[in-house]
Design brief:
Blueprint (H helix, E strand, L loop, with lengths): L1 E4 L2 E4 L10 H4 L12 E6 L2 E6 H30 L4 H23 L4 H11 L7 H7 L10 H10 L3 H34 L6 H11 L3
Antiparallel strand pairs: 1-2, 3-4
Helix pairs in contact: 2-3, 3-4, 4-7, 5-7, 6-7, 7-8
Amino acid sequence: MEEKVNGAESCQPQQTPVDLPPEKAATTPPEGNTAESFVEVKFNKELKRLTLDEATTLAQKGMKFEMIAEDIDRLSALSKGEGLSMSDYITRLTTESRERRLKELSEKCSGDTLLAEKLLEAEGVPAPDDSKALLAEFPDLEVDAIPDEVKTAAEIKGTGLLFEYLLYEHHLRRAAAEELSRRKTAEEAALGSLSSGSSRSAVDAEFLKGVWGR
């Protein structure tokens, strides 16, 4: 830009980003350049050139990390105390947690480890809509035939349709087995009382068999 000073023209040099302080020059594009601004950040002994959006995202992640930094330090100390890396320590905790949960489910399933494994896998299925996983496991099942109590439990507990339906099926089988056992015990008791000294025991026994559906 030229301007007159005391009647004479003087030439004043135009400032460029090179003339600016380093920290400002890093984020200010040359005049007339509409390209996106960048920020240079040194991380792990390496200089990275980030856009402002990228720098903003990383700054937000850094703020979130500060919120859990204390927990990370505690986890690091615990892993070192066990002579493990943090990654290996987390893996061990995950494995132990899975084994405990599998044992709990096996006990609830009366020792049916196969069903317990399926229930454990179903726990990881997202609750909102896992009908595909349920129908894949039970091809003959129609969506409309899914019991309302299964849908309600899945929604309230957040465990998923597959998990709750497997549990529902198990409860049905257990209830049927208990009912069969109860009826058998009652039948044997009734037949036993009739067979002790009654002349009509054979006729009554046949009648009771018809009552019990056998």
